[in-house]
Design brief:
6 strands; mainly beta; 1 helix; six-stranded antiparallel sheet
């Protein structure tokens, strides 16, 4: 189940090029093809091309990502099923 500290979480994507998220609590990793963020609603994976972490303010809970965004996925924090189910999706 996702974490919920009661704070707001918003996501705004403009022209698939400029992404702003609020409710950000940490950044797990980032490179040109993926940015993995933790939010108060659970982990979020941003995938794309030429991604750059333009700004990060963990105390304010905000992050901005520029580049071509191809996918935004809220990751499940609780693994369900056995090994084969996780392996095969």
């Amino acid at each position: 189940m996702a974490n919920d500290n009661g704070g707001p979480h918003r996501l705004s994507l403009e022209d698939r090029q400029h992404l702003v998220l609020t409710g950000v609590t940490d950044v797990d990793s980032f490179d040109e093809t993926a940015v993995l963020l933790r939010t108060n609603r659970g982990p979020v994976s941003v995938r794309g091309e030429g991604l750059q972490l333009r700004s990060l303010n963990v105390e304010g809970g905000q992050a901005a990502v520029d580049g071509t965004v191809t996918a935004i996925v809220y990751e499940d924090t609780v693994r369900r099923g056995g090994f084969l189910r996780r392996l095969l999706g």
